[in-house]
């Protein structure tokens, strides 16, 4: 039985066109880009072309694109690097309670090393308030990091308004756009962000490669030391084939964005309506409209999320309960907790994330097996009480 994959927010399959260009790069671009000989310079030229392509797709300059090992490293470099570089100016950082753990753990690290971090709350839809941000900024604030779209609920944050508030106060703004890229328009000239993180495997590229966009003249201290790679921002021989693959994946994602956005909007609305009708006592976590359409986070009353995931897996359906980085944890999602969700309901939350290869037929099959699974689990639940 072929698996129905509804966990695209965790990772995406690599696009066949991306595999093709990577295979070619692995065979042809094996020279070290730092070498002065012809083979080395051939690899350097290929990296430069990929950097130019990525920059043009993001509205950036090629000199503002820095390759990393993925979104986690990009987030770490942005938050820690800028905080360290600006330490003489101040030691206060602002982020939110709904961020990816790459940002939250970077904040924890900075707190242990003499920095103060403010973690902003969000509303019931998982959206951070611009006014709350404005009130949290202090004279010693140097960096703010708020994600563009949430990985668990899909809620889209008011990034442009937040950037304006920060720049008015002379504060740098970083956004983790890992879950936004390929799903909503992402352009650094429109948003005016100072730094932005991307990860290729979230938009049908390879794992192990990402980008940190750093606006020109933005002070960021490197975290990795060694050679002069990435203009001394990130030491280490470049991952040539993955860089080339990432550029191709981004090109395809941007080209397909408008059509996919509408298709996935229609599919997610159809899916939500059908699940609520067929199962009952199901609640959408996050906003109805202001969210990435491919992300559907549902809470099933009276059922443990882990039991639903395992039951669906036995039916050939792959889903998750939130961030793949913490899916082994039985704790309530920190995102739903920040949204002040009911604890018992939050424990029964499932993230259905759709993508390029999701079909209506796959969703119909998922809906067809859900009632039996939920009813069986509710019958065994000590906490479930059917609504009158």
Spell out the key features of this protein:
388 residues; Aspartate Aminotransferase, domain 2; 2 domains; 12 strands; globular
Question: If you had to describe this structure to a student in words, what would you say it looks like?
Answer:
The chain is 43% helix and 13% strand. It has 388 residues and is an alpha/beta fold. It has helices at residues 16-28, 38-58, 71-85, 101-112, 130-136, 159-168, 188-191, 229-232, 240-278, 305-314, 334-338, 343-346, 360-380; strands spanning 4-5, 65-68, 92-96, 116-120, 141-145, 172-176, 195-199, 210-214, 282-284, 295-300, 317-318, 349-353. Residues 323-327 have low confidence and may be disordered. It is globular. Strands 2-8-7-6-5-3-4 form a seven-stranded mixed β-sheet, sandwiched between helices. It has a three-stranded antiparallel β-sheet with strand order 9-10-12. The protein has a two-stranded parallel ribbon with strand order 1-11. The chain has 13 helices and twelve strands. It has two domains: 4-11 and 257-380, Aspartate Aminotransferase, domain 1, CATH 3.90.1150.10; 16-252, Type I PLP-dependent aspartate aminotransferase-like (Major domain) (Aspartate Aminotransferase, domain 2, 3-Layer(aba) Sandwich).
């Amino acid at each position: 039985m072929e698996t129905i994959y509804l966990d695209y927010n965790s990772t995406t399959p690599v696009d066949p066109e991306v595999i093709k260009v990577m295979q070619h790069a692995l065979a042809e671009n094996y020279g070290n880009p730092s070498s002065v000989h012809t083979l080395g310079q051939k690899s350097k030229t290929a990296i430069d072309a990929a950097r130019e392509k990525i920059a043009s797709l993001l509205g950036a300059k090629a000199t503002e694109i820095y390759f990393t090992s993925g979104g986690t490293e990009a987030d770490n470099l942005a938050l820690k690097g800028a905080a360290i570089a600006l330490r003489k100016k101040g030691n206060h950082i602002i982020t939110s309670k709904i961020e990816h753990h790459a940002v939250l753990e970077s904040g924890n690290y900075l707190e242990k090393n003499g920095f103060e971090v403010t973690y902003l709350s969000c509303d019931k839809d998982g959206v951070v308030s611009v006014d709350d941000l404005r009130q949290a900024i202090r004279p010693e604030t140097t960096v703010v990091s708020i994600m563009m779209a949430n990985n668990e609920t899909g809620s889209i944050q008011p990034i442009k308004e937040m950037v304006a508030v920060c720049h008015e106060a002379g504060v740098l703004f970083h956004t983790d756009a890992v879950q936004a890229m390929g799903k909503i328009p992402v352009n650094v000239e429109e948003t005016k962000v100072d730094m932005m993180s991307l990860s290729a495997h979230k938009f049908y590229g390879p794992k192990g490669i990402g980008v940190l966009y750093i606006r020109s003249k933005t002070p960021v201290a490197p975290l990795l030391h060694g050679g002069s790679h990435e203009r001394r921002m990130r030491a280490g021989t470049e991952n040539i084939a993955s860089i080339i693959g990432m550029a191709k994946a981004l090109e395809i994602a941007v080209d397909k964005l408008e059509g996919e956005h509408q298709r996935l909007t229609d599919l997610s609305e159809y899916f939500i309506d059908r699940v609520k009708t067929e199962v009952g006592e199901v609640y959408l976590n996050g906003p109805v409209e202001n969210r990435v359409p491919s992300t559907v986070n549902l809470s099933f009353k009276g059922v443990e999320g882990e039991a639903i995931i395992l039951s669906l897996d036995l039916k050939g359906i792959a889903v998750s309960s939130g961030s793949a980085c913490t899916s082994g944890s039985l704790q309530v999602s920190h995102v739903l907790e920040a949204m002040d969700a009911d604890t018992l309901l939050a424990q029964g939350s499932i993230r259905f994330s759709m993508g390029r290869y999701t079909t209506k037929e796959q969703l119909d099959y998922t809906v067809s097996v859900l009632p039996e699974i939920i009813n069986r689990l509710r019958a065994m639940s000590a906490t479930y009480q059917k609504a009158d």
